[in-house]
Design brief:
6-stranded parallel beta sheet, about 325 residues, 12 helices, elongated, 6-stranded mixed beta sheet, alpha/beta, 12 strands
Length: about 325
């Protein structure tokens, strides 16, 4: 061995054996962090886009765990596959916003495997989950019903445009509203179609409904997207004249704020996004602290023309 080579080894070998100050932040060490995964029902919905952004922003504040999200695009079969694929990687916490109750089987398997399961927004029929986090859809619907009953003085015909039939929020947003209106004998609810929480589906349905010539005093839609679609159909068919009340749910879009200000929508009820709270709960679970409450309900508020300015000021990150 030459003298130069021997000196080179003396210099190189100690360096190879030392850990750099950034070793703990290297890609290899990151793989050893606990995994928190999120299966979203459908990221195309405006409310869910805000939901996703809120969740990611909260997760970015927790470098102690790895976070990953995948979108099921409204397809229960795809969501089942996503959850099953996630489980191969043995996540510590699984966040799920179910497309519908058809994904309960995959959720149950994850829970039985020892993964903490946090349901977001939508629930399942069984009890194999660690916590559920979301807005109180029944109370939200009651607030909408009370607003409508007051505005119509307890008399009138209401067309209710519904969301996804098999989704738990749809049932609650129907039942809460109907329970309030049932207290007013002078009010009638026409149960409209399931329009899947989609603007265009609600617009097409409303166009067909208006061709019947049925008189209505209010349109209550299970979300703002459907309320907007119904209003667009009404305006196309009735460019002049008085419009019925239009009431939605979510309050996550600047477009909705603008329509309330202009009088195109009369009210909406905030449906708070649960992602930030879910990340907070997941971080505690990883510390060994299970949530004290299984059902965590987030506060909400009714937004009308009188309160819309204050709401917009308090919520600057609405979907554009």
């Amino acid at each position: 061995m030459t003298m130069k080579l021997a000196l080179a080894l003396v210099v190189i070998l100690p360096i190879a054996g030392c850990s750099s100050p950034d070793a703990e932040n290297s890609p290899i060490s990151k793989k050893n962090r606990p995994l928190v995964v999120f299966s979203q029902a459908n990221s195309q919905d405006p409310w869910r886009k805000v939901f996703d952004a809120d969740t990611q922003a909260a997760a970015d504040k927790h470098p102690e765990f790895e976070y990953e999200m995948r979108d099921a695009a409204g397809d229960p079969a795809k969501q089942n596959d996503i959850i099953d694929t996630f489980m191969i990687r043995k996540p510590k916490v699984l966040l799920v916003s179910p497309t519908e109750t058809a994904v309960e089987g995959s959720i149950n398997k994850a829970f039985d495997a020892g993964t903490s399961v946090i349901l977001l927004d939508r629930a399942i029929e069984g009890n194999k989950f660690t916590a559920w986090i979301g807005g109180d859809n029944y109370d939200i619907a009651k607030q909408a019903g009370e607003f409508v009953a007051k505005k119509l003085n307890g008399k009138g015909i209401i067309l209710m445009i519904q969301g996804i039939a098999a989704a738990t929020p749809t049932k609650d947003r129907r039942n809460g509203f109907m329970d309030v209106i049932a207290k007013h004998p002078g009010m009638t609810i026409l149960q409209g179609n399931d329009c899947g929480y989609q603007r265009q589906a609600a617009r097409s349905y409303m166009e067909t409904f208006l061709q019947k010539g049925t008189a209505i005093d209010c349109v209550y839609a299970h979300n703002d997207e459907m309320a907007i679609g119904a209003r667009l159909a009404w305006d196309a068919a009735h460019p002049t004249g008085k419009a019925p009340l239009f009431v939605g749910v979510d309050a996550c879009q600047q477009e909705v704020i603008d329509m309330i200000k202009s009088g195109k929508l009369d009210a909406t009820v905030q449906y708070p996004t649960p992602g930030a709270k879910a990340i907070e709960v997941a971080a505690e679970i990883l510390k060994g602290n299970l949530p004290k409450e299984k059902m965590i309900k987030l506060p909400t508020v009714l937004i009308t023309k009188e309160t819309v300015e204050a709401y917009a000021a308090a919520n600057p990150n609405l979907a554009k």
